[in-house]
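Long-time lurker. I teach an intro course on protein structure, and each term I like to show students one example going from raw sequence to a predicted 3D structure in token notation. This year I'd like something fresh instead of my usual example. Would anyone be willing to generate the tokens for the chain below so I can use it in lecture? Attribution to the forum is fine with me.
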Amino acid sequence: RSLAPMYQKSKEINTDLVGLVDAWGEGFVNELDYRKEAKATKEFSKAMEERQLRSVFAPEVVEELSSMHVLTTKWVDGERLSDSDADDVPRLCGVALNAYLTM
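-- Reply from a regular --
Happy to contribute to a lecture. Here you go:
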């Protein structure tokens, strides 16, 4: 963070590097708090249901086995789209892209 202004000036970068580093750092720290990840996981599944994308969901969080340092979810059976020979893979890729773009 302290080097960002010097680097920005030396490379003539027209970007707020300090703000960028701060935002990255905040996101990084938040990623390490699995309680926040658990909340985001639930919000994601709820958002997908509200958008009628019920086939897109995150694994259910097991609250009693989760903490700031541990995130426990239920197992989801399935197959990676990249490994699948199913006929509907292109459709499912479209669903995944739609889910990504709506978040």
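Some talking points for your students: Residues 34-50 form the longest helix (17 residues). The chain is about 50% helix and 0% strand.
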